[in-house]
Amino acid sequence: MLTAVRKRGDLPVIVLTGRRLEQDRVLGLERGADDYVVKPFSARELVARIRTVLRRSEHGTTQAESPDIITFDGLVIDQSAREVTVDGNGVELTKREFDLLAFLATHPRRVFSRQELLSQVWGSSEDWQVPATVTEHIRRVRLKIEPDPTNPRWIHNVRGVGYRFAGEGQPS
Fold first, then answer.
1. Whole-model pTM above 0.85?
2. Contact (CB, 8 A) for 103 and 117
């Protein structure tokens, strides 16, 4: 049924089920589900997941739509290989650091609040994590990719608002 829904359009889909096996979850996601929620779940969790999936679909940030390789003047982010290089040198990032950098880089010049980044990158909210989590991850990414982390080239603060990716040049 999910395959038939996907053939009709790119509607956001959340599978709600009692099937707990990993193979069932993987199959649901591989067939096109945006999220997979196993019973029992709270109404609050379901609402948070619905909001997250809707935000992703509204902003066009699904994984399938994002470019595989993003380059900005010496910074290369290969999303399919999950590799980052700066001026030809490999950079080791954690999963979350990579996800954060790739998300910002796929939306150059757009400002995101810490709350939006928690939602979009972590799939979470302030109910479960503090916004300082984002600040610390930004700091770590900067230490790894920026030539001078105190004067960032790619990830900029927008005082009182949040962060944006502002690379020199254009994504390619």
1. no
2. yes
